[in-house]
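pasting for the record
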Amino acid sequence: MGDYLSADNIVALATALIGVGVSVAMVWYERLVRGKSIGYRVQMDIAVDSDNELFNSLQRTPDATLVLLRIENDGAVDIGPGDYTARDEQRALTVQFTGRYVQSAAVTQPDPGDLIEHFRLSPDTTGVRHEANKVFLPRVPLNPGEHYKLLIRLTGGPTRSGVEITGGIAGGKVKPNRSVPMDDKPPLFSRPARLITLMLTLCVSALAAIIVVGHGSPRPMNCATGHLEVTGSTAFEPVMRTMARTYTSACPDSSITVDAQGSEQGVRQLSEAGAAAPRGAAPAVVAMSDGPRPPGSYPGLKEHRAAVIAFALVVDDDVPVKNLTTGQIRGLYSGRITNWKQLPGGPDLPVLLVSRSADSGTRDIFRGRVLGGRGEPAFTSRDCRHKNAPSDRVVRCELDSTPDVLRTVSRLPGAIGYGEAFAAGSSAGLHTVAIDGRAPAPRAAAPAGYPFTDIEYAYTYGFPAPDSLAAGFLDFMLRGRGQDAMSAGGHLPCYTPEGLELCRP
């Protein structure tokens, strides 16, 4: 419970609640405060020069004035003809002047233009009527932001005398809005909009600060203490190092050492440590293995399927071969093909087989998946370039790790080897080779039928105690953020929808 009541969580929750409150307030403002609203303002109120009359058909008067009145929907909701509450169908709104009398009134500049049709009671009768100091307006529908203007000539009083529009709007109101000069542009955002934007910006900034300044990543659910050793596969070593760093940075009381020595060596080390441990005490060791251990071997070990791992054949860039059939590969690794010129498009270079040592799980997978269960030729070279004896048919060396194989193949013309596909595809000086027309791909997503893939296993001695570092790290690796590291390293985690299908026993 203490983790949930941390300062970061409290601030984050409070910030989120403020954000939700601001959003609710915005909706409340738009729908309830602004709601339905008709606003009006005087845009022009001038005396008319008696020598330059604009309404020539009217009697000239020395105290004539001209008013331009703008009427608009400044709310957030449409206003239809049925929203006006006046009983008189022809008097929806009333414009009333103080101390002045209306001589004539006309609609000008409706926006949109088709609003003009709503000011006609019939083809020959206008709906804009006037009487004494009042102008009566019909039921004009207005969407938010739409407006029309009235040009009204008056007499009997000075300019700037009172102007008021009255009338009822169901669930709304009619009110004056700010009077601005005709050339003045209204602000792009209203004051409430600016306030809401500012508050939301503060909320988002606070959350970002919590993420950036606070703990860089969430602590794993099983954040255990102590020391753990991870051993085994060199093909999986880069991913394991990434996961170890991620876990220990989030769990500072834990320590994880990664010491990859090959799948077989790692499993053997785990088994020996378990046998030497007191009864009921599991060693703090996790061994990674390319492929499963033979049934019945290493009793006491428990396997955990981690990811689908893909491997690739690689050749030095001096060998332009891009595809090999299964038969050609077996010919190379049986010693029958000793020079690349024996293959179509191959150069005149001796074949150099760069292999893994007997402890390698990758070598076991290559033997079982590609060579059909047949073993590779005997060890014949210490430097991967020259034969140990003139009678040796082919050059074949053995190296301890995937990086060693890739480095060696990249520097020896005519060399061929194998290794984890993601690392192989990003290595310079060599290229991967398709098998029977099927090329390896990251995340074990090679075409259907690509043979050089298997499951990466994590082995423990028995089931580790629930509160142990081994159990916590294992859960982190298989079901937690360790999946991200496996995906980034080119592997398909077993505990994903696609992985579950491929990792089924």
